[in-house]
Please model this.
Amino acid sequence: MIPYDKRDGKIWYNNELVDWGNVKLHVLNHGLHYASCVFEGLRVYDGEIFKLVEHTARFFYSAKRMGFEIPYSEDEINKACVETVKTQKVQNGYVRPIAWRGSEMMAISAQHTKIHVAIATWEWGSYFDPNLKLKGIKLNISKWRRPAPNTIPWDTKASGLYMICTLSKHEAEKDGFTDSLMLDFEGNIAEATGANIFFKDKNGEIHTPIPDSFLDGITRRTVIDIAKSKKITVHERKISPDELSKFEGCFLTGTAAEVTPVSQINDFKFKVCKMIIDLSESYQSLVRKKAAA
Model:
């Protein structure tokens, strides 16, 4: 894999398309030291960005929650994302808008820092190994928990919130798992390190945690809509780890993960059943249809 700082092309950086290798920031910028940074992740299907408007709206919401204002309009960011994808000739890939506080101030206060914005895009296939996705990936249960909602801006895509996700995923991979299931501050099931989680019961109904201390994913909401269109009952509720033995199926959803079956969580086993495969295929049909529209 080519390191991300060694790639070719252009990155949209503060309203200019800049050569990839020339997009730089100072080591003393506030975003790096104090996580004054928000971002988004979008998928490109057949040259078109899926759910661009929704992702950009969340990008601006995240910035507002972090106490800074993106110096462009949502429409300008939407157009910049489209322009960057076309410039890079990305057909099936990923888009990463990011905004952060600059280096005008150091230490906790950052009232007078400049807000920088960049948008990068690249060709990108499956987040998980495609062979693993067919069989279902394996999760452990992380020792790290999603913090209580009154301790962090939990409903944002802010970079600092992902520190424990990286720790959890590294520990999972070290022990032979693909990813990690994280519990919330109350000990209930929350999400994987970068994706929401769903379970299928013996009656063919779906259960998913209430997103009250973690991100309510755009893909999560899309898959819920798909399930309901198929007359599948979806329960959004608190789910205890003690219930894992009662479920037959499990899957993750996310912009990167799309719809990924789970075959195992610790010692609990799940089937990659027809319902999950059908939801995955329906999701792929939707994103390709939207791209063609």
Summary: The chain has two domains: 4-123, 130-292.
